[in-house]
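Lab notebook, bench 4. Still working through the backlog of constructs that have no structural model yet. Next entry is a single chain of 232 residues. Request: give me the structure tokens for it.
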Amino acid sequence: METRATRDGDHYVLTGSKCWIGNASIADVKVVWAKDDDGRVGGFVVEKSTPGFRAQDIQGKFSLRMSRTSECWFENCRIPAENRLSKASGLRAPLSCLSQARVGVAWGVIGAAIDCYETALAYAKSREQFGRPIAGFQLVQEKLVWMVQEITKAQLLALRLTRMMEAGTALPVQISLAKRNNVWMALECARKARDILGAVGITDRYSVIRHLMNLESVRSRHHGDQCIRRLA
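Model written out:
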């Protein structure tokens, strides 16, 4: 973590930058994680109008295009000392935020997988080859059955994790496992659905290619890369 928060009387002075931050260019306030004079991680509330703060949307994305993703700069941003989150001290605080977010990801990708399955099933029933719907061919059926099987497993995993979260017994490694498994499942569902749709699967006539591109971002960037989740 390179961003620094230096104490200066009744203020903190923030210097540094952040990248791939959602809604940073439009949010009225941001919570910024930075190291203080003692090298300890803290959370700081920065208002959009703070002198020295600026944000710019990242252009040219093919994935998660509905999400405004920004790069932020903090050039000697002076904020009141009271803007420091008093109960958020140490690396555990931002990591706890990530754990909460990963639970949401584990659930959210299931919705994308279900839409891919339903789209592929409807297409397979209507698309005919050799005088009958392609849903009647075993290779297509195998893909559809695989999707139902893995979606059901992911739902049970997410449900179990949520109950553990409510009971306060969920461990970060279990959260990482759920996020890693369900993102992998959803991405594979999108790929199989695109296979079933054939050439039209790469067009915007169907939602599958959008899910496929979005899930690639979730796999590689959103709250932790899949390889890092494996190490966790």
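Notes after review: The chain has two domains: 4-89, 92-231. The chain is about 45% helix and 25% strand. Flag for follow-up if needed.
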